[in-house]
Amino acid sequence: MSTNRRDFIKKVTAGTAGVAVGSSVMGMSAKSYGRIIGANERINVAIAGLGRRLGAYTEPVGMKENNVELLYLCDVMQKQRDRAARMFERAIDYKPKLENDIKKILEDKNVDAIFNATPDHWHTPMAVMAMKAGKHVYLEKPVSHNMKESELVVACQKKYNKVVQMGAQQRSAPDSIQIIKEIHDGAIGTPYKALTFYVNRRGEVPVASKAPVPEGLDWELFQGPAPRQDYRHNTWDYNWHWYEWLYGTGETGNNATHELDIARWALKVDYPESMYVEAAKRHFMDDGWTMYDTMDVTFRFPGNLVIQWDGKSRSNHNTYGSDRGTIIYGSEGSVFVNRSGFKHFNRDGKLIKDSKTQSNEAGTALGGGGDMSTAHIQNFFNTIRGTEKLNLHIAEGVISQAMTHYANIGYRIGKGFDIDTETGRIFDRDAMKLWGREYEPGWEPKL
């Protein structure tokens, strides 16, 4: 690891323990998580889901100062397990066990924590299984497939008192922490609006047609909590994001989570009071993509505050000069912030501060990893040890995740709706029909 990267990690880990984000659920002390593991004790971990996010874990797991041992690599596809084993050969000097069934790993009492980077439909069910088995959980976004699962994963964390970090790693970026604090301290006057965006040039995807199960894939376990279906061509490898709603949560759950979380953090808001969405499939009209690839959403909050989302999955026009980011507008200026740092402008549009970040976290490129992820994972480890508190506790994360679920629900029913700002419940019968989902019998996640 380079000197710059070490400096970045030292900077972020030195500042995580006392960060205030202005939301009611974050006033928890490190003690409240329970000091189950001592400050110097080794943490034994397993990683479930060995796809494109795997690169985020090699560095923090391999860093000697983290005192972590990787016991298992788990995936339902054999070639993913084999690839992960080869990747970790460069980071650790021992061999973890390879396993396809997470249930077997959860039975191992030596495992302290699980990294859950599986497809979306597995996120909450696996997190619940892990907490019930006594494990802490690093839960990648989206933390839930639907709003009912969001309620469940928070209730489960409270019941079993486990450390559950939401994997939205920009919460651990020093530049983001700095500029959000400055915004809260009045740097742009009174914030009133945040515009969030994402652009990508995703291409055509195959029409999903019935096909033999690929060699090495445990299709039964891939489906897990989802109702059983025959295997269809190219479903398992990433394109599950775009085929109906059995496994994925669309681009909004896939990527908007990050920027909407930063926007909500900056404006110090919780649930919106209303939501309106315009979304459709605009590109490659005859391909296998079955949901929107273009979405505009407006969320309104108490106090006349607004957050907007502009998502373009398959049009690479950088409307705002970057592939992704958040613009926060205030009465006396504005801020642009993304994974590369921030720019602070006064009310006349003059640049008055430009951060010089050392981060190398990926933007829209497939594959995970970088300084922010490493710092976020270290924060998870240190919270387990009782020396820090989480930068994105699950109870805070699900509120940001709710915005993505509202947007998807609005798209699916073709209209906006009003929302209870205290509970997050929707004042619309059609929308509430999509509050939860159907499960394969026997797979329903329960406390």
In short:
This protein is 30% helix and 19% strand.
Q: Uncertain segments of ≥5 residues (pLDDT<50)?
A: 1-36
**C-alpha geometry:** globular
Number of strands: 15
Fourth-level CATH superfamily of the largest domain: Dihydrodipicolinate Reductase, domain 2
Helix content: 25-40%
- Main-sheet strand order equals 14-13-12-11-7-10-9-8-15
Gyration radius, rounded:
21 Å
Percentage of residues in DSSP E strands: 15-25%
Count up the domains.
2
* Biggest sheet layout: 9 strands, mixed
Structural class: alpha/beta
Listing every helix as H and every strand as E from the N terminus to the C terminus, the arrangement reads: HEHEHEHEHEHEHEHHEEEEEEEHHEH
- CATH hierarchy class name of the largest domain: Alpha Beta
Mean pLDDT: 91
The termini sit apart by 41 Å
- How many DSSP H or I helices? 12
CATH architectural name of the largest domain: 2-Layer Sandwich
Task: Give short descriptive properties of this protein.
alpha/beta; Rossmann fold; Dihydrodipicolinate Reductase, domain 2; six-stranded parallel β-sheet; 19% strand; globular
Give a description of the structure:
By secondary structure, the chain is an alpha/beta fold. It folds into two domains: 3-170 and 377-394, 3-Layer(aba) Sandwich (Rossmann fold), CATH 3.40.50.720; 172-206 and 235-362 and 395-432, Dihydrodipicolinate Reductase, domain 2. Helices cover 30% and strands 19% of the residues. The chain contains twelve helices and 15 strands. It has helices at residues 3-15, 55-62, 78-88, 102-106, 123-132, 147-160, 174-184, 219-223, 250-267, 371-384, 394-413, 429-432; strands at residues 43-48, 68-74, 97-99, 113-116, 136-140, 164-167, 191-199, 274-280, 294-301, 305-312, 324-330, 333-338, 341-346, 351-354, 417-418. The strands form two sheets. A nine-stranded mixed sheet has the order 14-13-12-11-7-10-9-8-15, covered by helices on one side. The longest helix is centred in the C-terminal third of the chain and has 20 residues, at 394-413. The chain starts with a helix and ends in a 15-residue tail after the last helix.
